[in-house]
C-alpha cells in the first residue's frame, strides 16, 4: 500500500478514480431483462468486488515506430516485463535531444483519459525532414490497480476484470512489483484502438487470484502508439507541433458468474416498410459472463405469433466472456405494425437451463414513393456469411423502371457508424431517379478498410437488397438485376475503398466517384521511421511486404483504364492530402492517356464538406454513367493486374485463376485487332475468357498467347456464358474446360482468413481455462470488436468427431496449440498437406525442427473438410511463443504477415528483424522457393 500512497500525493485532485462497479448494477440489468434462470446461480445483491485504478501513470517514450510495427515488437518495448522495471534507467531514442529518454509522469482525468505528449522534443525539426512519419511514436504507460474483496464474503468466486481501452493498442495486467515469484509471461489484450462502438469490454482473469480478505495490488501496462490515422495532424487538430497521445482506460471487476447477459448494442433488426420487415435477419446480442452456454431455441411471445414467428437459425455456443449475435429468422404471414418484437431465447449450460426475454423496438415506414422516403434511409438486414445478422442502409429511387439500372454502392469513411450520427452518411448522398443507393456497414466503422471481409460485406449487401426486393410482389417492380453492376462511391477510407473495389472487380463496376481517397497505407504515413528496417534483410522484408500488395491501389489501376471515374478531393484537405488523388490520376493516365477520368479539386475545401457529392458535376456524371452504355465492349487493348486470384473479378470477361509464382503480381495484356487476338502474360499460370465478350470482327482471327498460336474449336464461340481456360505447363499454353482450373487458391497472406464464408471456428485442446482458451477468447473478442465476425469455439475432441462425421463447420478454421503437438493439431499436420509437418510431438518446417524458446509460428493450411475454406495454425513453442504468434493475427490492415511466418524473441526489440523465416505458399500448398526466406 505504500507505493500507492506515494501515487496519491503526486496527483492533485482526486487520488483514485473509483471505477469499481458492484455486482448490484448487474443484477438490475438482469432483472430488467426478466431473465428467468433455473438451477443457475443468480448473481445476488452483495457488496461485490471493487477495483481502484490509480490516476498516476509512469510513461516511457517517445520511440520511433511505423504504423502496425507494435504487432511484431513487444508492446512493452523497450521493457522486458519478465524482469523488474527500473524506473531510473534511460533508453536510446532518436527523437529526443541527446538521444536518450527516461520515465516521466502523466495524470489521468476523472473520465480515465490519459494524455501523453513530449513537448521537449523538437517535433517541427523532425517533421521538416521526415513529415508525418516523424510524428508516429510509441510509449509504454504503467500504473497500479488495487482489487478489494467484498466486505461480506458470500461471493467468493474469483473475479474477472473488465477493461475498456480506447485508442491504445495493447494492455496487460501484471502482479504487483513487490510480489515475489516466477518471471511472468505477460498476456497481452488488444485495446479498442479505433474507439469502435459496440465494443464489449475485454474480460480477463487476474494474473493471480486476489486475496479474499485484504486488497491486492496489480500493475497495468499499456502500449500507447501515436498514429496519424488515429489522432490526426496536431498542427490542424490542436494548433501545435506537439503530437498528443490520448488513450482512455476504464476498469471494472465482476464475479465470474454463470450467467448470460444481454448486449443490446449487438442487436440487429431491420425497419418495417408497409408492415413488412426489410430483411428477415434478426440478431440478438448475448454475452456469457463466466461459463459455456448454448442457445437452443427462439420463439416469439404469445399474442403476436399469429402473423409473425421466429426461429433460431442454428444452435450457438457462447464461451465464457464471449459476446455473440444470436441469428434469428423472422417469418411473416401478413403485415405487422408492432412497436416492439418480443422474443424468448432458450439456453442450456450443462444441466442448467435458462430463458432470456428480449424486447427489440421496431421502426415502421410507409411504402416509399417519389416524394416520400425516410430521410435517413431504410435499414435492411441479411445474414452475412450464412449466419451473421448484419444491416445496411438504402435509399430507394424515385421511380421504378422496367429494366433496372445499376445501384450506387456508397462506402463510408473510417470511424463512421452509418446507423448513428443522425445517419449523416446516407443523408450526404444524392437520391437517384432510377437507381438504389446502398450504404453497406463494411462490418464496422473501420472494418478491414473496405478490403477482404469488408468488401465481402459490401457485395453481400447488394445481393441482400436484390433478394429482399424479389421477396414481395409490391417491391418487385423496384428490383435489381441479379449480380448487378454498381457505381461505387466513397469518401476518405471509403474513397480508397471505391478505388479498391472497382479495380478488383472491374466488370462489376460501371463507374467510380472516389472522394478524399488515399492510395494505400504505406503512402498515407511513410515507413521511414521503421525500427524493424534497421535489422531486417531487405529480401525478407520484400516477402513480408508482399502481404500488402493486394491492398496497393496504385498497382491495380490498369484494371480501371477504361472505367468512367470522377475523382474528388478538397484542395486543402489536412487529413488525406490532395496529392494522393492527383497521383492516382497520373498513374491511371500512364496506363491510358485517354482514360475517362475527371479530377475535381475543390480548391478551398478540407476533408469533408456537405456538398462533396451533392453538386451538379456529380449529378451529371452519375446519371450519365448509370444510364450509359457499357464502355468495355469497344476496348481493344487492356491489362488485367491481379495479386490474389480469389479476391479478384474479371476485366472485359478475362479472369486470372492461377499465378505462376504466388506472392508476385500477375498481369495479362490483351490486344484485340482484326488480325488477331494477342495475349502477353506475366507471372500467370491459368486464365480464362468469355469468347462471347469479344468483338464480332475477331471471331475467327488467330489467337496468340505469348506468341504461341492456340487452335480453338469454333463451335465454342457462340455458347452463352461459356468461358475457356488456358493453362500454362512448362511454358506451353493449352486450352482447358473452366472447371479444371476454377478452384482458385485462397492463399497469399494470413489475413485471407478473415474472408470466411461462414463463422470462423476456433479449435482449442479442451474448454478448460488454458493459454489456448485464453487465446481463443481473445481472438473471438477482437474479431467481434474490429469486424463483427462471429466465432464458434470447439475442443479438439469435438473437432476430431466433426471431421470424421463430416459435420465440421464450413467456415475458416483456427487451430491453437503450444509446446508438444498432440490431438487435433497433430493429426491435422500429420497429413503433411503443407511443408509444415510433425515429428513426434515437434513442429517441423521442411526438415527443420522448430523448438527454440519463445518462438511463434503462424501458417495457413488446407481446411480439413472444405476445399473452399482455410485453416490457420497458430503455434508457440511455449506460452511466450504462443503470445508472440497471437499478436500477429491480422486483426488490422497493414500487419505484414504472408502465408506463413516463424518469429522469435528478438522481435521484441527488432520487430520484423526478429522474423526467422516467412513465405508465401506456391500453388496447391507447395513450397515456393522464390517467395520464401528460410
Ligand atoms: C394478423 O393478420 C390478420 C390479417 O391481416 C389481421 O386481421 C390480424 O389483426 C393480425 N393479428 C395481429 C395480432 O396483428
Ligand atoms: C466518360 O464517362 C462519362 C460518364 O459516364 C460519359 O458520359 C462519357 O460519355 C464518357 N466519355 C467517353 C469519351 O467515353
Ligand atoms: C526477458 O527476460 C526473461 C527473464 O530474464 C528472459 O528469460 C528473456 O529471454 C527475456 N526476453 C528477451 C526477448 O530478451
Give a nutshell description of this structure:
Residues 440-612 form the Peptidase S9 prolyl oligopeptidase catalytic domain. With 934 residues, this protein is of the alpha+beta class.
Query: What small molecules accompany the polymer chains?
Result: 2-acetamido-2-deoxy-beta-D-glucopyranose
Fraction in beta strands? 25-35%
CATH class of the largest domain: Alpha Beta
Uncertain spans: 1-46
Number of strands: 54
Radius of gyration: 28 Å
Structural class: alpha+beta
Q: Give the full name of the CATH homologous superfamily of the largest domain.
A: Alpha/Beta hydrolase fold, catalytic domain
The rough form would be described as: globular
Q: How much helicity do the residues have?
A: 10-25%
CATH topology of the largest domain: Rossmann fold
Question: Would you mind describing this structure in some detail?
Answer:
This protein has 934 residues and is an alpha+beta fold. It has four domains: 8-256; 367-626, Alpha/Beta hydrolase fold, catalytic domain (Rossmann fold, 3-Layer(aba) Sandwich); 637-659 and 663-740, no CATH class; 750-933, Chitobiase/beta-hexosaminidase domain 2-like (Chitobiase, domain 2, 2-Layer Sandwich), CATH 3.30.379.10. 17% of the residues lie in helices and 32% in strands. The chain has 18 helices and 54 strands. The strands form eleven sheets. Strands 1, 3, 4, 7, 9, 11, 12 and 14 form an eight-stranded antiparallel sheet that branches. The chain has an eight-stranded mixed sheet with strand order 27-28-30-29-31-32-33-34, sandwiched between helices. Strands 45-44-46-51-50-52-53-54 form an eight-stranded mixed sheet. Strand 27 and strand 28 (388-395) form a beta hairpin. The longest helix is centred in the middle third of the chain and has 19 residues, at 452-470. The radius of gyration is 28 Å and the shape is globular. It starts with a helix and ends with a strand. The site of one 2-acetamido-2-deoxy-beta-D-glucopyranose has 6 residues, from loops. Residues 440-612 form the Peptidase S9 prolyl oligopeptidase catalytic domain. Keywords: Signal. It comes from Ganoderma sinense ZZ0214-1. It holds the Pfam family Peptidase_S9. One of its GO terms (molecular function) is serine-type peptidase activity.
Amino acid at each position: 500500500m505504500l507505493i500507492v500512497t506515494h501515487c496519491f500525493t503526486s496527483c492533485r485532485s482526486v487520488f483514485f478514480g473509483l471505477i469499481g462497479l458492484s455486482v448490484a448494477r448487474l443484477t438490475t440489468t438482469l432483472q430488467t431483462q426478466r431473465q428467468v434462470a433455473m438451477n443457475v446461480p443468480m448473481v445476488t445483491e452483495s457488496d461485490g468486488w471493487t477495483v481502484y485504478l490509480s490516476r498516476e501513470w509512469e510513461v516511457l517514450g517517445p520511440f520511433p515506430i511505423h504504423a502496425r510495427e507494435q504487432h511484431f515488437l513487444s508492446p512493452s518495448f523497450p521493457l522486458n516485463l519478465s524482469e523488474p522495471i527500473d524506473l531510473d534507467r534511460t533508453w536510446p531514442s532518436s527523437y529526443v535531444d541527446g538521444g536518450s529518454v527516461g520515465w516521466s509522469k502523466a495524470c489521468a482525468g476523472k473520465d480515465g483519459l490519459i494524455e501523453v505528449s513530449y513537448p521537449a522534443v523538437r517535433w517541427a525539426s523532425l517533421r521538416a525532414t521526415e513529415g508525418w512519419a516523424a510524428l508516429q511514436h510509441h510509449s509504454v504507460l504503467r500504473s497500479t490497480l488495487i482489487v478489494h474483496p467484498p466486505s461480506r464474503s458470500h461471493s467468493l468466486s474469483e473475479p474477472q476484470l473488465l477493461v475498456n481501452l480506447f485508442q491504445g493498442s495493447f494492455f496487460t495486467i501484471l502482479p504487483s512489483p513487490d510480489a515475489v515469484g516466477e518471471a511472468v509471461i505477460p498476456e497481452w489484450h488488444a485495446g479498442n484502438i479505433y474507439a469502435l462502438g459496440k465494443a464489449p469490454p475485454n474480460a480477463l482473469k487476474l494474473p493471480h487470484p486476489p486475496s479474499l480478505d485484504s486488497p491486492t495490488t496489480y500493475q497495468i501496462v499499456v502500449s500507447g502508439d501515436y498514429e496519424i490515422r488515429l489522432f490526426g495532424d496536431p498542427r490542424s487538430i490542436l494548433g501545435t507541433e506537439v503530437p498528443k497521445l490520448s488513450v482512455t482506460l476504464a476498469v471494472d471487476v465482476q464475479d465470474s458468474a454463470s450467467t448470460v447477459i444481454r448486449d443490446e448494442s449487438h442487436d440487429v433488426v431491420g425497419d418495417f416498410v408497409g408492415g413488412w420487415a426489410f430483411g428477415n435477419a434478426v440478431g440478438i446480442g448475448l454475452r456469457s459472463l463466466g461459463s459455456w452456454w448454448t442457445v437452443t431455441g427462439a420463439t416469439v411471445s404469445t399474442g403476436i405469433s399469429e402473423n409473425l414467428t421466429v426461429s433460431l437459425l442454428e444452435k450457438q455456443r457462447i464461451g465464457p466472456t464471449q459476446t455473440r449475435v444470436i441469428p434469428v429468422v423472422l417469418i411473416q404471414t401478413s403485415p405487422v405494425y408492432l412497436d416492439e418484437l418480443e422474443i424468448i431465447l432458450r439456453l442450456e449450460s450443462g444441466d442448467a437451463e435458462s430463458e432470456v426475454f428480449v424486447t427489440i423496438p421496431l421502426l415502421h415506414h410507409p411504402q416509399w414513393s417519389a416524394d416520400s422516403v425516410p430521410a435517413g434511409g431504410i435499414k435492411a438486414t441479411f445474414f452475412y456469411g450464412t449466419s451473421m445478422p448484419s444491416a445496411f442502409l438504402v435509399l430507394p429511387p424515385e421511380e421504378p423502371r422496367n429494366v433496372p439500372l445499376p445501384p450506387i454502392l456508397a462506402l463510408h469513411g473510417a470511424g463512421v457508424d452509418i446507423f448513428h450520427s443522425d445517419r449523416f452518411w446516407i443523408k450526404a448522398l444524392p437520391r437517384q431517379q432510377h437507381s438504389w443507393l446502398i450504404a453497406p456497414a463494411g462490418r464496422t466503422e473501420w472494418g478491414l478498410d473496405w478490403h477482404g471481409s469488408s468488401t465481402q460485406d459490401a457485395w453481400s449487401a447488394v445481393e441482400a437488397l436484390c433478394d429482399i426486393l424479389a421477396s414481395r410482389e409490391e417491391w418487385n417492380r423496384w428490383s435489381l438485376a441479379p449480380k448487378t453492376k454498381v457505381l461505387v462511391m466513397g469518401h476518405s477510407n471509403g474513397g480508397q475503398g471505391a478505388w479498391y473495389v472497382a479495380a478488383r472487380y472491374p466488370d462489376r463496376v460501371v463507374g467510380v466517384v472516389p472522394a478524399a481517397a488515399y492510395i494505400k497505407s504505406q503512402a498515407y504515413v511513410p515507413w521511414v521511421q521503421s525500427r524493424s528496417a534497421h535489422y531486417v534483410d531487405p529480401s525478407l522484408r520484400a516477402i513480408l511486404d508482399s502481404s500488402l500488395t493486394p491492398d496497393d491501389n496504385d498497382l491495380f489501376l490498369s484494371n480501371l483504364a477504361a472505367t468512367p471515374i470522377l475523382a474528388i478531393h478538397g484542395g486543402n484537405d489536412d487529413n488525406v492530402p490532395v496529392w494522393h488523388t492527383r497521383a492516382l490520376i497520373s498513374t491511371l493516365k500512364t496506363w491510358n492517356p485517354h482514360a475517362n477520368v475527371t479530377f475535381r479539386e475543390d480548391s478551398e475545401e478540407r476533408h469533408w464538406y456537405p456538398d462533396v457529392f451533392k453538386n451538379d458535376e456529380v449529378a451529371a456524371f452519375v446519371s450519365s454513367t448509370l444510364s450509359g452504355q457499357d464502355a468495355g465492349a469497344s476496348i481493344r487493348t487492356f491489362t488485367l493486374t491481379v495479386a490474389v486470384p480469389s479476391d479478384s473479378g474479371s476485366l472485359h470477361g478475362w479472369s486470372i485463376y492461377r499465378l505462376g509464382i504466388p506472392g508476385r503480381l500477375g498481369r495479362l495484356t490483351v490486344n484485340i485487332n482484326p488480325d488477331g487476338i494477342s495475349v502477353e502474360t506475366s507471372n500467370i499460370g491459368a486464365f480464362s475468357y468469355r469468347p462471347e465478350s469479344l468483338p464480332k470482327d475477331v471471331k475467327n482471327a488467330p489467337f496468340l498467347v505469348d506468341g504461341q498460336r492456340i487452335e480453338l474449336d469454333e463451335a465454342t464461340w457462340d455458347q452463352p456464358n461459356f468461358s475457356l481456360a488456358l493453362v500454362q505447363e512448362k511454358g506451353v499454353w493449352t486450352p482447358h474446360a473452366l472447371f479444371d482450373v476454377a478452384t482458385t487458391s485462397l492463399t497469399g497472406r494470413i489475413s485471407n482468413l478473415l474472408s470466411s464464408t461462414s463463422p470462423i471456428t476456433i479449435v482449442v485442446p479442451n474448454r478448460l481455462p488454458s493459454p489456448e482458451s485464453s487465446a481463443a477468447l481473445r481472438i473471438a473478442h477482437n474479431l467481434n470488436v474490429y469486424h463483427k465476425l462471429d466465432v464458434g469455439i470447439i475442443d479438439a475432441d469435438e473437432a476430431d468427431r466433426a471431421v470424421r462425421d463430416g459435420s465440421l463447420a464450413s467456415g475458416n478454421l483456427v487451430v491453437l496449440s503450444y509446446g508438444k503437438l498432440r490431438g487435433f493439431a497433430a493429426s491435422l499436420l500429420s497429413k503433411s498437406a503443407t511443408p509444415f509437418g510433425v515429428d513426434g510431438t515437434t513442429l517441423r518446417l521442411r526438415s527443420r525442427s522448430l523448438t527454440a524458446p519463445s518462438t511463434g509460428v503462424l501458417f495457413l493450411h488446407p481446411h480439413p473438410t472444405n476445399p473452399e475454406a482455410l485453416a490457420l495454425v497458430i503455434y508457440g513453442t511455449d506460452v511466450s511463443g504462443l503470445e508472440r504468434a497471437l499478436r500477429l493475427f491480422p486483426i488490422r490492415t497493414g500487419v505484414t504477415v504472408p502465408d506463413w511466418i516463424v518469429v522469435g524473441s528478438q522481435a521484441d526489440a527488432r520487430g520484423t528483424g526478429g522474423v526467422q523465416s516467412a513465405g508465401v505458399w506456391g500453388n496447391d500448398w507447395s513450397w515456393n522457393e522464390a517467395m520464401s526466406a528460410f
